[in-house]
Specification:
five-stranded mixed β-sheet, 4 helices, alpha/beta, 8 strands, single chain, about 40% strand
Length: about 120
């Protein structure tokens, strides 16, 4: 999984992303995007060099969420999910120009904590 963490001291905790949908999903995330800025397919593909990781149905992945306390609550964990069918059915141009995605989670540390540090994607 390509979860990115900042190097500053702050709040951190392991968290899991569980794919409880009926198809493979592709995921990228960032925990140092400033509030009101959104992680997009175009940003991941063209600006960062990050990749989308594939998670098969029923699989999960654990990593560390780290949100710097000096910036808190101005930074949030963002998780961008695209289903395999979305990537198959949309052109890359459409994904970028229209910010196509199946789900975007935008969570503060407290919201992630309220989920018991488990993001359960059910294909919504």
């Amino acid at each position: 999984m390509s979860f990115k963490c900042s190097e500053e001291d702050g709040l951190s905790h392991p968290y899991s992303l569980v794919n409880n949908s009926g198809e493979a999903i592709y995921v990228s995330s960032c925990d140092y995007v400033e509030k009101d800025n959104f992680l997009t397919y175009g940003y991941v593909r063209n600006c960062t060099g990050w990749t989308f990781e594939c998670i098969q149905p029923g699989e999960s992945h654990e990593d560390i969420c780290k949100i710097p306390s000096d910036a808190f609550p101005y930074r949030e964990l963002q998780v961008l999910i695209l289903k395999e069918s979305t990537l198959r059915d949309c052109s890359e141009r459409d994904l970028i120009e229209n910010d196509v995605h199946d789900k975007r989670y935008v969570l503060t540390y407290e919201e992630l904590e309220a989920l018991n540090f488990i993001i359960d994607y059910k294909g919504e």
